[in-house]
């Protein structure tokens, strides 16, 4: 899954970006709430917006992307790729897909946190 118009970064690069300037990056997890809260965990500080809520949350995401680079993550990288493509198609350019999703994040020995998501409100 590679496309010139969709930026993709491996988890280790994303973690380095967070460590360099965590205030300039936001992570949006597009998995379902039960996945986000499962034993795979989620990226610390990530915002849960399930895939089916992305269209209704586009203005919220656009607002975040005005201030920060936005990484999109899912379980394996497929849903997040399509969500990133949808956002780019809707002229949100400051977004990128996190290659391999939370699976590759964990296989890269990067830290996750556990627990339920804070309820997100669509705009």
Short description:
Helices cover 36% and strands 15% of the residues. It is of the alpha/beta class and 123 residues long.
How many discrete structural domains? 1
The helix tally amounts to 5
CATH fold descriptor: Oxidized Rhodanese, domain 1
Task: Give the CATH superfamily.
Answer: Rhodanese-like domain
Average the pLDDT over all residues and give the rounded result: 92
> Quick one: biggest sheet?
5 strands, parallel
List SSEs in N-to-C order: EHEHEHEHEH
Regions with little confidence, pLDDT below 50 for 5+ residues: none
The general outline is globular
Q: What proportion strand?
A: 15-25%
* Rg estimate, integer Å: 13 Å
Q: Give the CATH level 1 class.
A: Alpha Beta
Structural class call reads alpha/beta
Strand arrangement in the largest pleated sheet:
1-5-4-2-3
User: In total, how many beta strands?
Assistant: 5
Helix content: 25-40%
User: Judging by the overall fold, what is the CATH architecture?
Assistant: 3-Layer(aba) Sandwich
